[in-house]
């Protein structure tokens, strides 16, 4: 009986941590989207930068739009990924 209880606790912990990870990823995605929208409005960026963000992690993809770099810098600042000096 002790082993079954331990197994149940381990499984429950694994399920709980997986749900927590999903919540964290969901919130990160929402915050990223909000920050990107803010940057697009502030910098008057075209919709074409969305394609660059979508394809960014694809192997062999090269960024071709300079404005995507501006969006990345803006996002880095909005999401506190860099300090106020940009480092």
TrEMBL record:
UniProt entry tagged with the keyword Chaperone: no
Q: From what superkingdom does this record's organism come?
A: Eukaryota
> GO terms for molecular function, please?
odorant binding
Annotated signal peptide: 1-20
Transmembrane ranges?
A: none
Known InterPro entries for this protein? Odorant/phero-bd_Lep (IPR006072), PBP/GOBP (IPR006170), PBP_GOBP_sf (IPR036728)
**Keywords carried by this UniProt record:** Signal, Transport
Q: Describe the family membership recorded for this protein in Swiss-Prot or TrEMBL.
A: Belongs to the PBP/GOBP family.
- Recorded protein name is Pheromone binding protein
- Look up and give the organism this protein is from: Ostrinia nubilalis
